[in-house]
Specification:
The structure is a single chain. The chain is of the alpha/beta class. It folds into 2 domains: 118 residues, P-loop containing nucleotide triphosphate hydrolases (Rossmann fold, 3-Layer(aba) Sandwich); 254 residues, no CATH class. The chain is built from 16 helices and 14 strands. The longest helix has 20 residues. The chain is globular and about 65 Å long.
C-alpha cells in the first residue's frame, strides 16, 4: 500500500523550477516509491544492479543517451561519474523536471551533486514517516508506546512486518554497510557497540570524549564514527540556542535519533510495554518529538531551524524553533498526566528571550488545553500543529 508522502507536493513544486531534483535520505525511507509515484511518466532506472552500475560508470554518455526525455535515476551514489556528464545534458536542454535523482548516502551523494550540478538541481531530504503519514496506512498503531516502539520506516507499516526483527536486520544490513562505505571501519563489533551507546544518549548533550571512552575508542575515532552516523541520517544534531546575551549558556549540541523504533531496537527493547517503565522512555519520547518537528519542516522544504537551551543555573528547554513570527519553545513530557510545574521552564525561558515566545508542552496524554499561557499538546496531535 503506497501512501501519500508529505514531501510529494514540495518535490513536484521544485521539479517545476529545476531540470534536476535530488532526493536523499536514509535507506528504506521510501525515496524510490515517492519518486516513481510523483513522476509516473518518467522512465525509471536503478543503479543498484551491478551490470547497470558498470554500464553507467564505463559509458556515461551512452547510458544517459538512452533517456533523452529524462528519467528517475535511483541509487545514483553508486555511479557518481554520470553527474558531470549529466551537467552537460542539462545545459543543452534545461527543461525543468526531466531528471529525478535519488540516493541514500548523504555525504557522498551531496558532495558529488554540489560539485557537478551546482545551480542545476534542487535538493530535498526524505526522512522516515512522520506520525500523520503512519496513520495513512491500514491498522496504524493507536497508542504512544507502540508508536514509539515501531517507529516510522515505511516497509514495517506497509507489509506489517515484525518491527523488532526488521530493525535488527536494518542495523546489520544497512547501517553497517553504509558506514563501512563511508569509513574504513576495521572493528565492526566496536562500531556496533558505539552505535548502541549512541542510542542510549539520544536526547542528551553530546560529550564525544565520554562516548569514545565508553566505547573504547579514541576521541578522533568517535568523532569520525558519529559523523558517519549523521551522514547516514541515523541521527541529527540540535545546536544550542545562541541568541541570548547571557554568557553562562551551555554550548554543547544535543543528538536525536531520527527513528524511535531504531532507538528501541538498539536499546534491546523487544516489546512496546517495556517502554512503560524503561529509564530512557523520556529520552526516546523527546527525540520522537524533535524528529516529528524536524520532519514537519523538512518534508515541506524548510530548514530544521531547531536548537535547544540550557544555562548554568539549570534552566532547560528541549527545543527552540525560530520562525518569522518569533520563537516556539517546546518541552516534551512522556507522561499522560501533566505535572503542575510542567510549564515553568517555558515561562522562565520567555523572560530570558527578547523575542515573542509561543510555548508548547507535547505530552503523552490525550487532552489539549492551555496552562499559564502554554499550549499543552497531546502527542497524537503533534503533526496537526504547523511548525513552520
Amino acid at each position: 500500500m503506497a501512501i501519500r508522502r508529505n514531501l510529494a507536493p514540495t518535490l513536484k513544486e521544485l521539479a517545476r523550477s529545476y531540470p534536476v531534483v535530488t532526493v536523499t535520505g536514509p535507506r528504506q525511507s521510501g525515496k524510490t516509491t515517492l519518486a516513481r509515484m510523483s513522476f509516473r511518466h518518467h522512465a525509471y532506472v536503478s543503479l543498484e544492479p551491478l551490470d547497470t552500475r558498470s554500464y553507467a560508470r564505463e559509458d556515461p554518455r551512452g547510458f544517459l543517451a538512452e533517456y533523452k526525455s529524462g528519467a528517475v535515476i535511483d541509487e545514483v551514489q553508486n555511479a557518481p561519474e554520470i553527474l558531470s556528464y549529466l551537467q552537460q545534458v542539462v545545459d543543452e536542454d534545461p527543461t525543468p523536471g526531466r531528471w529525478i535523482l535519488t540516493g541514500s548516502q548523504h555525504f557522498g551523494l551531496l558532495q558529488s551533486v554540489t560539485q557537478s550540478l551546482a545551480g542545476r538541481t534542487g535538493v530535498l531530504h526524505l526522512l522516515p514517516l512522520s506520525f500523520d503519514e503512519v496513520r495513512r496506512f491500514d491498522d496504524p498503531p493507536t497508542d504512544l508506546l507502540t508508536t514509539l516502539w515501531i517507529g516510522g520506516y515505511p516497509r514495517i507499516h506497509d507489509q506489517r512486518l515484525n518491527a523488532a526483527r526488521w530493525l535488527t536486520d536494518y542495523v546489520t544490513t544497512y547501517v553497517q554497510r553504509d558506514v563501512r562505505q563511508i569509513l574504513n571501519v576495521g572493528d565492526l563489533e566496536a562500531f556496533t557497540t558505539f552505535v548502541r551507546l549512541s542510542a542510549g544518549r539520544t536526547a542528551t548533550e553530546l560529550n564525544l570524549s565520554a562516548l569514545g571512552s565508553d566505547a573504547g575508542v579514541s576521541h578522533n575515532t568517535a568523532r569520525a564514527w558519529l559523523s558517519a552516523l549523521e551522514a547516514s541520517f541515523i541521527f541529527f544534531r540540535v545546536p544550542p540556542w545562541r541568541r541570548s546575551h547571557r554568557k553562562q549558556l551551555i554550548k554543547a549540541p544535543k543528538i536525536h535519533f531520527f527513528d524511535s523504533g531504531l532507538v528501541c531496537s538498539l536499546l534491546g527493547i523487544t516489546q512496546p510495554e517495556q517502554l512503560r517503565h524503561h529509564p530512557l522512555r523520556g529520552q526516546v519520547f523527546e527525540s520522537w518529538v524533535a524528529s516529528e518537528v524536524h520532519k514537519h519542516r523538512t518534508h515541506r522544504g524548510y530548514p530544521p531551524a531547531l536548537s535547544h537551551y540550557r544555562d548554568s543555573k539549570g534552566l532547560e528547554v528541549d527545543l527552540v524553533l525560530e520562525g518569522a513570527q518569533g520563537l516556539s519553545a517546546i518541552e516534551a513530557k512522556s507522561g499522560s498526566t501533566l505535572a503542575t510545574d510542567a510549564t515553568t521552564p517555558l515561562q522562565r525561558f520567555a523572560s530570558a528571550a527578547s523575542d515573542p515566545i509561543t510555548g508548547f508542552v507535547v505530552h503523552g496524554g490525550e487532552e489539549r488545553r492551555r496552562i499559564h499561557g502554554v499550549d499543552a499538546l497531546p502527542w497524537s496531535q503533534i503533526q496537526r500543529q504547523d511548525w513552520r
